[in-house]
Design goal:
The structure holds two protein chains of two kinds. By secondary structure, chain A is mainly β. In chain A, a hairpin with an 8-residue loop joins strand 21 and strand 22 (about 380-395). Helix content of chain B is about 35%, strand content about 10%. Chain B contains 21 helices and eleven strands. The longest helix of chain B has 24 residues, at about 135-155. Classes of the chains: A mainly beta, B alpha+beta. Chains A and B meet through strand 26, strand 27, strand 28, strand 29 and strand 30 of A and helix 1, strand 1, helix 3, helix 5 and helix 21 of B. Strand 34 of chain A pairs antiparallel with strand 1 (about 35) of chain B.
């Protein structure tokens, strides 16, 4: 029996207890107070304002005034003070009974002195010679995005992140490092805790588990060889810290809404547009009269005597407008009817860390639950994850690290995809009911698809469960007798299993029947069963196992002013997987959703398997002189089963140099304000092998065909083999400048890069005629150049209790196809060679023929694209000037649907116990088509099209006449429909309050923080109907999310 | 000691990883594919390879867009599929318009490569020739190569004849077009060899047989003998062809037409003599009902009708393919179908009256009741106002308990006793999925399984698509006979076809017979991908395909004192008016251009191969 008393639950009791302690704590008083006074100054004796002074192990503290003076009450005359300020080296000073304390703080020229993860190791930020950007896990947890990829935007200059969909479980982002560099796959290599290409990728990693993310953008990635050309993202998870056990719990409750939903026409407007369409089917000479007749009587008699009826009479339209007849003349906003406000999402996380010098542990348990936008949503995402990281120091020589991740990802969807659902929402006719006034669901839009029904579990479900078990372990052995030499052996096993179950059952909708119910006024409704003919079930399962073994020797030693770092290692990786699926139909009832209960007719099973392997050797030689002159050489000798034995192995070297100018005497003496300045440069060769497997083998694949009344297995030539196939070569060079001014208050980092990709794996199908019948393999033929720059400039300061920082970053990349076997023959202005990858070829919009007289005055010949021009048709530019509009007048533009520039503005501030973080993020240079593709008889129009359109009564020279299901020549393929997606958005904001430890320590808490944060809170763009990150011109996709979130973190 | 242990540990750990220096494990094999050498050393695998080549038929003519909508048979309802690019004469090498996957240049050549690969490997088979499987596979491969070349030939004219499998890295891939004569000869040679190789073989349904090879030969030789491919004749009829720079690519520039007709006749006679026709032995017309049944059995390939299929694309529900969805593609919107290809009035008017006379709108009896007393094939092929059809769905049934096709608008009396307009459920003003309604007022019935258990919107049917059927060879034979002045023989065979469907005999001769013949084929072989080619090779396209598409407006007015609340077709309650109208030019504005006699070679392919000469009337 369930106990309904709220206080009976252990949780409630704990809360009450907590509250009680809280009150007592607040009323408590201190004893034995003494005062300490003093001045904090810099090395020149100048007082420093805003220095933090904290009594160690307490929350008692103060800050210095404008002259650097302070006064502080301490409970214990033997306490230790921690004195810290940005730009200075912190100090801890024991009072030893003193009541007066003057301290000089040394300038901290190493205030950037963070350690950054690089390939197979870590480096101090100031000695890094490659182009590496990183972000701390602490920053990422400030974003309420469920998918980690969406938390990266705007934080890492040179990394562009475009979120194409917000669908729970499928809301990843397209991540590009320095834009696109190749014609094929441009995805970066993702390395998690040193293991490349782990199953599950980065999307679902619990942000609370992340210590840091580094991105290797240039030759620094060369140590990853034939997979590194598109850059490398290194993710490092948190590890245990020495100390007594610390348990923290965090809870987040968020509410998600679509960032943008398209506005569509209402019933009165839409039905009158359908009348217009009917008129446009007549000869132009009759338009005006028909328009007049439809608007007055609703009936038009043509000169030839045939009478046409307006599809919607004036009376109908006025009933749609006034809403007085909800049964017969509804006015439905399909988005409103189908989507709810504030879809909840929650996340719980418990983290335990601690340990001794010998054993340190971190255990992190996460749970999240995300609901879909739909009312009674069948869509949702749930995740459970557990990560355990153990580090043990066995003795002076041996250390062992173990890591384990278990994660279950539960995706649930209705049987119809988000594309189908949003297609039907977009099409949804406002003059048809989503629900009848009595609450029963209305008819479908098509295929039984009424969005209010197919978004729920009434049509069955589509469930997908993914389980991940990832383990990795390493043993580090310091070789006795050789100081600085160690060996690290690594093993990692990833297991992925995916189970999906698709249960598709018929559902019921209601249509208007004839006549009325017994009451004489309620119209009769007729139930109709829609969807599949009978219940059907599809199960599928796949398993995958990745195994990596590796060994690395490293030697790090400093001899006086000379430091050398040597590393050499090897990895062998194997991946194998298999899958099967089963299908049953003719279930006699939807009551039982198990395979055995399905009928035996037309049952279908299938399955397959794959395997792959690679082996490689890699190394690094680093040298620096007094951390002033830096040099690094890194390499990988890489073998992949993507390529045949003869071309399998490649050598990928990188060389990087740096000069810390600020370490030079002349600089220190002359430009003291610039206290750190480093110039660095790199060049390296990297590879890309991300193509279909077995392009070098002559093999035959399976299909089937009907012979003798049966489905019979057939074989087809899978490809013409290319025995010489090998990886793409990237030659990437980079020049960087980084520095700090005014003791670290101002910092900056600038990079310019030039990437050249050769041997690009592309098809020679532009020069090999189709009459050869060859289905061509990829060959190493293409060449692309990509150039750009990045910057990150910031300022941080502290005025008394008010600390703030501000930084701006951005990255620009523009590529150009140098060669990809484009056949001659296309006009110069349509050629893709010399232009960026994937650009648009389109007619140039040149206004609209407002009326017949403009058409009569037109001199251009449109006959190649339309037989006869009519008012409201679009004008095109005669680009080649031949007097005719032909496909040759289409022009290749410079834009694609990926932005050229992405950047972010980060603001941070804290005052006493409050802290605030703001991230604005923006992108520019992308264009996206919008389409009225399914508008007309078949579906509704976007409000912007309805409002702007050319009409007989209100002709426009700018916007065209509406079309029916894109049936006019101007309905697509011209740049009227191509819209700029430049945007700036408030990507992330967090406001937090840390409850003073004087209060919470009484209840055994060491920290307690409350916060509010949000994602995509505001967007500024000219793109009105869809989110600017969308890439679906028809709006057939699950929109991006705007999230507001409340959370707390309690640490015990 | 400890140091030693550590060194040992390091050594062990290092050797575990570094012994992987043996990289054999990197040589993975594909687990879902078979190597080329296995395929050609195993008869079953070689058989599977040859069988795959048939898949180039795709779903036959059961695609969503039909070739018939490029002709005066039907029009296509949905925009944006490139149909009007062709029917309005706007095709050009950069934007050809809709080209079926069944005839696309790249697809055909890819299948031709497979036949070449098979023939090369079967020349020296590495497996035992049990039951003469080698000859069987060679015969099938030759038939298929001929079939795919014939597809290219009849759409493009002479094409590059490739009879070997190219390798990667060859110095020169550029092949010029062969002449029309060479192309036809190549096809005929392959078919003759296929017929020999397949002689006496019992072939499973769906595979090529000797009969199929002979029927295809009959077709290609009939085409070869036609006006369009006789350059002197074609030049006389078309300025465009007259101006062709290389007419030998599209027709015969010399030689005797009579010889060509004789060859066509002989080839067709061989097929006719196979005697596998369905009910072509009647000596007088079947009754109206029997004629309707016969024609439906024929088109649905059941109750004996299947014997007509010399080559067909079959479907089974074990593999749900789009070829089983023709009822959805073409069926009425009032049944939640898509009404893609809908018959136009010009076709409807060409169905004769039951007595063999022409239908005439100027005849007041015909105009008042245009669907009465027509050729039985009309009702068997076309749905129109009042046609009883499958039971409508639960939701739609209350609107039409009689389940008849509704293509007009009608007066009905509403609850308050007022006369209001009811738009037919199968029109573009329907309350059911109006955007899919027919523009013409007709729907195709032929080839849709009438079994009411097959609910077309979500159930697949298993009607095969006829690729080569006996009746076509009979038409070819008759056509050759007429061309050679043997009218009586032609009439005999045409009348066999007519009797089967309940139509009286033809008695005409000379050019009158030519016209009857052409109309007979148009009606009998509606929707079988004949009209597109026939109108071209007879060079009647300008006056047939070039006509504006049209449809019917039907208005039902309640007769005095009648009151109907739920509409049902009834001559008792309603007076109907039938008014043909031309399709709105904004929807489809048909016009013919002589360049359309042949498809253009795409600009991309010309760019790849500058040896290709473009077809007449198209700029490069």
């Amino acid at each position: 029996m369930e106990n309904t008393n709220p206080l009976a639950s252990p949780f409630a009791r704990k809360c009450l207890l907590f509250l009680a302690f809280f009150m007592i704590g607040a009323l408590g008083a201190f004893a034995q107070v003494s005062t300490v006074k003093g001045k904090i100054a810099d090395e020149q004796g100048q007082g420093i304002p805003g220095v933090n002074i904290l009594v160690k192990a307490t929350t008692t503290g103060t800050t210095t005034d404008a002259d650097g003076n302070f006064s502080l009450n301490v409970a214990n005359g033997n306490a230790t003070l921690i004195i810290s300020s940005i730009g200075y080296v912190s100090q801890e000073i024991a009072l030893n009974g003193r009541s007066n304390l003057d301290v000089k703080l040394a300038t901290d020229t190493k205030s950037l002195s963070e350690v950054v993860v690089v390939g197979y190791g870590t480096q101090k930020k100031e000695t890094i010679t490659g182009s590496v950007v990183s972000v701390k896990g602490d920053e990422l947890v400030k974003s309420p995005a469920v998918n980690l990829a969406n938390s990266l935007a705007g934080r890492l200059p040179g990394v562009s992140v475009v979120n194409r969909s917000g669908e729970p479980g499928a809301d990843g982002a397209t991540i590009r490092i320095r834009g696109a560099n190749t014609l094929g796959n441009n995805s970066a290599l993702i390395v998690i805790d040193g293991i490349p290409n782990r199953t599950g990728g980065l999307d679902r990693i619990n942000p609370a588990d992340i210590e840091s993310i580094s991105v290797l953008k240039d030759a620094a990635a060369a140590i990853y060889g034939s997979r590194a050309a598109n850059g490398v993202i290194l993710i490092t998870t948190k590890r245990g810290k020495t100390g007594k056990p610390s348990l923290s719990y965090s809870f987040n409750q968020g509410f998600a809404n679509p960032t943008v939903l398209p506005n569509t026409a209402d019933a009165a407007q839409y039905t009158s547009m359908l009348n217009d369409l009917d008129i446009y089917g007549l000869p132009v000479a009759e338009w005006a009269a028909a328009n007049q007749a439809y608007k007055t009587t609703g009936s038009y008699t043509r000169p030839n005597g045939i009478t046409r009826k307006a599809p919607y009479s004036p009376q109908d339209i006025s009933l749609y407008r006034d809403g007085s007849d909800p049964w017969g003349h509804p006015n439905t906003d399909w988005y409103d009817a189908t989507l709810k406000k504030d879809s909840p999402q929650s996340r719980h996380n418990v983290q335990l860390t601690g340990g001794t010098e010998a054993v340190r542990y971190l255990a992190s348990l996460g749970y999240q639950n995300q609901d879909g936008y739909y009312v009674n949503s069948a869509t949702g995402y749930k995740q459970y994850d557990l990560r355990i990281n153990l580090d043990a120091t066995i003795n002076k020589y041996v250390k062992v690290n173990l890591g384990m991740l278990g994660r279950q990802e539960n995706r649930a969807y209705p049987t119809k995809s988000a594309n189908t659902i949003f297609r039907m929402l977009q099409r949804g006719k406002p003059q048809e009911p989503a629900y009848w006034p009595d609450g029963r669901p209305g008819p479908d839009i098509e295929n039984g698809e009424n969005p209010v029904v197919i978004t729920t579990d009434l049509s069955g479900y589509d469930k997908n469960v993914r389980n991940y078990v990832q383990t990795n372990g390493s043993i580090e052995i310091k070789i006795p007798g050789v100081d600085g030499l160690k060996f690290t052996g690594t093993g990692a096993i990833d297991n992925e299993s995916i189970n999906s179950k698709f249960w598709n059952i018929p559902w019921t909708l209601y249509q208007r029947g004839s006549g009325f119910e017994a009451d004489g006024t309620t119209p009769k409704l007729v139930a109709s069963v829609r969807g599949p003919a009978e219940p059907q079930l599809r199960l599928s399962n796949s398993n995958r196992l990745n195994v990596l073994l590796g060994g690395v020797f490293a030697y790090d030693k400093t001899f006086g002013s000379h430091t050398i770092n040597l590393l050499a290692g090897t990895n062998r990786e194997t991946i194998s997987g298999e899958n099967f699926n089963a299908f049953r139909r003719f279930f006699i009832s939807p009551a039982l959703d198990q395979l055995f209960a399905g009928g035996d007719l037309q049952k279908d099973n299938g399955g397959g398997a794959f395997n792959s392997a690679r082996i490689n050797y890699f190394g690094r030689v680093g040298y620096n002189y007094k951390e002033k002159y830096l040099a690094e050489f890194l390499w990988r000798y890489d073998g992949s089963d993507i390529f045949p034995k003869a071309t399998r192995y490649g050598f990928f070297p990188g060389i990087m140099m740096g000069w810390v100018v600020s370490e030079e005497g002349f600089w220190k003496n002359n430009v003291p304000a610039v206290n750190f300045l480093k110039v660095r440069g790199s060049i390296g060769q990297l590879g890309n092998d991300q193509i279909d497997t077995y392009q070098y083998l002559s093999t035959y694949g399976f299909r089937s065909y009907i012979i003798g009344g049966n489905e019979t297995k057939t074989l087809f030539e899978a490809r013409i083999p290319n025995p010489n196939i090998t990886w793409e070569v990237a030659t990437n060079s980079n020049l960087g400048l980084e520095g700090q001014l005014f003791n670290g208050k101002v910092f900056f980092e600038l990079d310019v890069f030039a990437n050249r990709r050769t041997n690009i794996l592309w098809f020679k199908n532009a020069s090999v005629p189709e009459s050869t019948g060859l289905s061509l393999p990829r060959q190493n033929i293409g060449e692309v150049k990509n150039k750009g720059w990045e910057f990150n400039i910031g300022y941080r300061n502290q005025i008394k209790d008010f600390k703030y920082n501000f930084s701006v970053n951005g990255g620009y990349a523009q590529n150009k196809i140098v060669f990809w076997d484009e056949a001659p023959g296309a006009p110069e202005w349509q050629r893709s060679t010399g232009k960026p990858i994937n650009t648009y070829v389109t007619y140039k919009y040149d206004g609209v023929f407002k009326d017949q007289s403009e058409i009569d005055a037109n001199k251009l010949d449109y006959s190649a694209i339309v037989k006869a021009l009519r008012p409201g048709d679009m004008k095109y530019q005669d680009f080649n000037g031949d007097g005719k509009i032909t496909p040759d007048d289409r022009v290749r533009l410079d834009n694609t649907n990926l932005p050229l520039f992405q950047g972010g503005v980060n603001l941070g501030a804290s005052y006493k116990n409050f802290d605030l973080t703001v991230l604005f993020q923006g992108a520019a240079g992308a264009k996206q088509y919008i389409s009225a593709g399914e508008s007309g008889n078949i579906g509704n129009y976007l409000q912007e099209i309805a409002d702007n359109r050319w009409t007989i009564d209100n002709p426009s020279s700018v916007h065209p006449r509406i079309a029916n299901r894109s049936d006019q020549y101007f309905s697509g393929g011209n740049d009227y429909w191509l819209r700029s997606t430049d945007y700036i958005r408030l990507k992330n904001l967090e406001l937090g309050y840390s409850v003073p430890s004087t209060i919470i320590s009484k209840v055994g808490l060491s920290a307690f923080r409350l916060y509010f944060n949000g994602l995509n809170l505001a967007t500024f763009t000219k793109m009105t109907s869809f989110d600017p990150e969308a890439d679906n011109s028809l709006g057939r996709y699950y929109p991006q999310t705007k999230i507001i979130n409340f959370g707390l973190t309690a640490t015990f | 000691m400890k140091k030693l242990k550590l060194l040992a540990l390091t050594f062990i750990a290092a050797s575990v990883t570094f012994t992987s220096c043996n990289d054999d494990f990197v040589n993975t094999e594909p687990l879902s594919e078979i190597s080329q050498s296995s395929v050609w050393s195993d008869a079953a695998l070689a058989d599977a390879f040859v069988t795959e080549i048939y898949a180039g038929f795709n779903v036959g003519g059961f695609e969503e867009q039909s070739l018939s909508s490029l002709t005066d048979e039907t029009m296509f309802t949905h925009p944006g599929r490139g149909i009007t690019t062709i029917t309005e004469g706007r095709s050009n090498p950069e934007d050809i318009g809709w080209v079926s996957i069944n005839l696309r240049w790249d697809r055909m050549y890819s299948r031709i490569r497979a036949t070449n690969l098979a023939l090369q490997n079967l020349a020296n088979p590495q497996f035992p020739n049990t039951n003469n499987i080698v000859e069987r596979l060679q015969g099938e491969a030759k038939f298929l190569r001929a079939y795919y070349y014939h597809q290219l030939a009849r759409y493009y004219g002479g094409v590059p004849l490739i009879d070997r499998a190219y390798e990667l890295g060859e110095a020169d891939y550029l092949a010029p077009r062969n002449t029309w004569a060479e192309t036809v000869n190549f096809i005929v040679k392959d078919l003759d060899e296929a017929a020999t190789l397949l002689d006496g073989k019992n072939m499973a349904s769906g595979r090529a047989s000797k009969a199929a090879a002979l029927a295809l030969k009959s077709r290609i030789l009939t085409y070869a003998a036609s006006d369009l491919h006789d350059i002197p004749t074609a030049k006389g009829k078309s300025a465009t062809i007259s101006s062709a720079t290389n007419p030998e690519l599209i027709g015969y520039v010399s030689g005797s037409r009579t010889d060509r007709w004789e060859k066509a006749k002989a080839a067709s006679k061989v097929v006719v003599d196979l005697n596998s026709g369905f009910l072509l032995n009647l000596s007088e017309p079947a009754t109206y009902e029997q004629g309707t049944t016969n024609y439906m059995n024929l088109s649905l390939a059941r109750n004996g009708g299947r014997t007509e299929l010399l080559m067909a694309r079959y479907f089974t529900n074990a593999k749900l393919e789009n070829g089983g969805r023709i009822g959805l593609y073409n069926g009425p919107n009032g049944y939640n179908n898509w009404a893609g290809n809908t018959p136009i009035q010009l076709l409807v008017d060409d169905y004769e009256m039951m007595d063999g006379t022409k239908f005439d709108w100027n005849n007041p009896v015909h105009a008042a009741d245009p669907y009465a007393n027509r050729d039985p094939r009309f009702d068997a092929s076309i749905m129109h106002e009042g046609t009883p059809w499958k039971v409508r769905s639960n939701a739609n049934l209350p609107k039409d308990p009689a389940s008849q096709i509704q293509t007009g608008r009608y007066e009905v009396v509403n609850a308050s006793g007022q006369k209001v307009t009811h738009f037919g459920l199968d029109t573009r003003n329907s309350s059911i999925e109006d955007w899919n309604g027919s523009y013409t007022g007709y729907y195709i019935r032929k080839f849709t399984d009438p079994n009411p258990a097959i609910v077309d919107q979500n159930t697949w049917q298993e009607i095969p698509w006829p690729i080569l059927r006996y009746t076509e060879a009979v038409f070819n034979y008759a056509e050759a006979c007429i061309a050679l002045g043997q009218d009586a023989e032609a009439r005999t065979w045409l009348n066999k076809i007519r009797f089967r469907s309940g139509m009286p005999a033809i008695t005409e001769s000379g050019s009158a017979l030519v016209n009857r013949f052409r109309n007979e084929k148009r009606v009998e072989m509606f929707y079988e991908e004949q009209r597109y080619h026939d109108a071209r090779r007879w060079m009647i396209a300008p006056t047939t395909l070039g006509r504006k598409a049209n449809g019917i407006q039907i208005v039902g007015t309640l007769k005095p004192s009648k009151s109907v609340s739920v509409y049902k077709y009834s001559k008792e309650n309603y007076s109907y008016t039938y008014t043909p109208f031309e399709i709105d030019p904004g929807k489809e504005n048909r016009s013919w251009d002589d360049k359309l006699y042949f498809l253009p070679i795409s600009r991309a392919e010309q760019n790849r191969n500058d040896k290709l000469v473009q077809n007449p009337g198209y700029t490069k």
